[in-house]
Design a protein that fits this description.
By secondary structure, this protein is of the alpha+beta class. The chain is 50% helix and 23% strand.
């Protein structure tokens, strides 16, 4: 299989030699999943890390009323994983599920640890990836606490307009922290403008 999209992702975030990227990704294995397939289940220990080449994945939890609450929506290309579960080998706290048919590249913890210890550029790439993930989580936390639902919706439309073509509105509403009916109302109000 052609690893060009995986390799290009490394180049897009960090200045790194082509040969180094090929060495990092040489053990990555390709696979695909149909829509609505669980990639990683709650209470399961993550033994792989996944690069999402094509498609959309969500992570979600069940609240006290047994309702699914979407905590994140992943749009390719990106890495998808419960990183605490993966690196600390502890049970995941969320479910990771494909929204659309998806293609992935996966590798195990042994390979990641080997790359950390033997490829300095991989350490730098990983550090940058963790900082970006932290920033995204922190930014989302601030948005959820400080913005109205309509503002969060509008910002999501600006940042990721493609999501609205592929992700069910019920998932988007959950991600925005609102009910389906509230999302419908917001969409009607915006369409009037």
């Amino acid at each position: 299989m052609d690893k060009s999209s995986l390799n290009q992702y490394f180049h897009s975030l960090f200045s790194i030699e082509k040969e180094t990227v090929e060495k990092i990704t040489e053990t990555f294995k390709y696979f695909d999943l149909k829509a609505n397939t669980v990639l990683l289940n709650k209470d399961e220990v993550s033994i792989k890390t996944y690069f999402l080449e094509k498609g959309y994945v969500r992570s979600y939890i069940l609240n006290e009323d047994n309702e699914e609450i979407t905590t994140n929506i992943y749009a390719a290309p990106c890495f998808v994983n419960d990183f605490l579960s993966f690196f600390r080998q502890q049970p995941a706290k969320e479910v990771y599920q494909t929204i659309t048919a998806c293609t992935f590249w996966e590798t195990g913890l042994d390979n990641v640890q080997h790359n950390f210890h033997h490829i300095p550029e991989f350490r730098e790439f990983s550090r940058l990836l963790f900082v970006l993930n932290y920033y995204n989580i922190h930014d989302r936390l601030i948005e959820m606490a400080s913005q109205k639902a309509s503002t969060r919706y509008f910002n999501l439309m600006k940042k990721h307009p493609d999501i609205f073509q592929y992700v069910p509105l019920k998932v988007i509403a959950s991600y925005l922290g609102i009910k389906d009916s509230s999302l419908s109302r917001i969409r009607r109000e915006i369409n009037k403008i």
